[in-house]
Amino acid sequence: MAYLRNCWYVAALSKEVQASKIFTRKILDENILFFRDQTGLATAMADRCPHRFAQLSMGKLQDDCIQCPYHGLTFNQQGQCVHNPHGDGRIPDKAKVKVFPVVERYSAIWIWMGEPALANPKTIPSCDFLDSENFYIGSDYMNIQGNYLLESDNILDLSHIEFVHPLFSSPSVSAGEYKCEVEGNTIWSKRDIYNDSQAPEFIHKVFRIPQGTVIDRWLHVHWQAPAIMALYSGGVASGKNRSEGVETPGFHWFTPETETSSHYFFGISFPKAMGEEFEKIAAEEIKQLRAPFEFEDKPIIESQQRNIGNKDFWDERPLILNIDAAGTKARRIMQKMIDEENA
């Protein structure tokens, strides 16, 4: 499978890469190890010794360097071999490990898998609602045995929540107004639900609307390549101006592990202006949100992947409905960017 490489992918949540520990993750079919130096700065390098190809992650962290578990070659944060314990200690010119540019932002570690010289931190997708100074944030991670584009489809078409997540939805969702907007290489998938008299208790609680009140709510998803999505979910008593309601931004980030598996990073944030109690609510809600993702979305996506197997998605001639507009456009944008990169 061809991947878009000259872009920023989410490699890990910041909390996953801990001090004095080696962390590993496969990204775009490449085994990568991560560690923090004594100042807390994150490093990412190929999990592969150039000598006999042992996994460096099985070795030791020593003075901000990685020692190979097989023959003791030691590599610094720049991937250079700095110690050869054998013979006269001469270090061959080829004793280098590939290092990947990384930037820590929005409580996540972002990695550049393409040409290092093109890695510009200014091109990391903006996620301002993950500013920890102004928002309470809850986040989590899950591995999915499904292609990352299937997951993009899932978030860009939220009509599915009526059927996959009945405890979080109502029949009004699929009947809501839907439109897809393309702005360059970004997409908005907007679903607006009016006069919802059957919204579940969870919705009333999050949007601070008394139970039994008819509400208007919205589900607006913003997509940026390769699969960086923000979900703006809001609600207000029916007929009132949206500025009087509550909007809770969330994020859904997908990174390919392999052609048929992916990494799913997700979270929710609440403006601190809503009150200090929402710090606890953010932590509680992310635990509650994991359940539907793990036990409802995940089985569906993995069943899709089992049926598709290693075949090309479009070769399977999928039926296209109007609800698929955003997902289809995202796939086309990604393919165009990949084709241009490989031209």
UniProtKB/TrEMBL annotation:
<dbReference type="InterPro" id="IPR036922">
    <property type="entry name" value="Rieske_2Fe-2S_sf"/>
</dbReference>
<protein>
    <submittedName>
        <fullName>Vanillate monooxygenase</fullName>
    </submittedName>
</protein>
<dbReference type="Pfam" id="PF00355">
    <property type="entry name" value="Rieske"/>
</dbReference>
<keyword id="KW-0560">Oxidoreductase</keyword>
<keyword id="KW-0479">Metal-binding</keyword>
<keyword id="KW-0411">Iron-sulfur</keyword>
<dbReference type="GO" id="GO:0051537">
    <property type="term" value="F:2 iron, 2 sulfur cluster binding"/>
</dbReference>
<dbReference type="InterPro" id="IPR050584">
    <property type="entry name" value="Cholesterol_7-desaturase"/>
</dbReference>
<feature type="domain" description="Rieske">
    <location>
        <begin position="8"/>
        <end position="111"/>
    </location>
</feature>
<dbReference type="GO" id="GO:0046872">
    <property type="term" value="F:metal ion binding"/>
</dbReference>
<keyword id="KW-0503">Monooxygenase</keyword>
<keyword id="KW-0001">2Fe-2S</keyword>
<dbReference type="InterPro" id="IPR044043">
    <property type="entry name" value="VanA_C_cat"/>
</dbReference>
<dbReference type="GO" id="GO:0004497">
    <property type="term" value="F:monooxygenase activity"/>
</dbReference>
<dbReference type="Pfam" id="PF19112">
    <property type="entry name" value="VanA_C"/>
</dbReference>
<dbReference type="InterPro" id="IPR017941">
    <property type="entry name" value="Rieske_2Fe-2S"/>
</dbReference>
<dbReference type="GO" id="GO:0005737">
    <property type="term" value="C:cytoplasm"/>
</dbReference>
<keyword id="KW-0408">Iron</keyword>
